[in-house]
Amino acid sequence: MFLHVLLFILVVGVGSTIALDLWANIARKIGWMPGTHWPSVGRWIIGAFSGKLIFDSENTSPFTTTEAILGWGFHYIVGIAYAAMFPLFLGVNFIDAPTIFPFFLIGVVISSLAGLGILMPAMGGGFFARKTPSPVSIYIYVIVAHIIFAIAQYLLALTMI
Q: Cα–Cα distance between 71 and 76 in angstroms, integer?
């Protein structure tokens, strides 16, 4: 049972994060949004450990490989953590009979709120992107991206039955 749960978490977490990244790449290529710059997130994480809770946008030094690995790693760990919420909060039996609503709740609602309410302010964009040039565009992008994320979570969960 433990290996089944672990496999579910890894497949759903990593797979749905890959789907999110593919969507972000498409959005960037069509000129809609540049997407999250994960090396910046890595720099923010390093800064947070030294007490700087907001990304230092004045630091214009080139991003390091360590920052890139840390940022991308954080991104995938968060995707895995969202996948872990399903058996954690809904029980391991959920894995054998997944329903769509929990994927909407975790994959769209919770993850969008976390991005806009935690990561966006931490990266200097303000709470719910209020410091960005177009907060409404950010909201639409985040919601569309996380709908794709949630659909991928659900479809990948169905493959685990």
A: 9
- pLDDT, tens digit, for every residue of 84-104? 999 999 999 999 999 999 999
8 Å CB contact between 30 and 139: no
User: In sequence order, which residues have a C-beta less than 8 Å from that of residue 139 and are 6 or more positions away?
Assistant: 116, 128, 129
Nearest to 148 by CA among 9, 14, 10, 18: 18
Residue where the block lists tokens 């302010």: 121
Contact predicate 23/148, CB 8 Å: yes
Pairwise CA distance, residues 114 & 36, whole Å: 14
Amino acid at 97: A
Secondary element (H or E) of residue 55: none
Whole-angstrom distance, CA of residue 143 vs CA of residue 139: 6
Q: Is 5 helix (H, G, I), strand (E, B) or coil?
A: helix
Per-residue pLDDT of 134-148, as tens digits, reads: 999 999 999 999 999
Lowest-confidence region among 50-54, 119-123, 132-136: 50-54
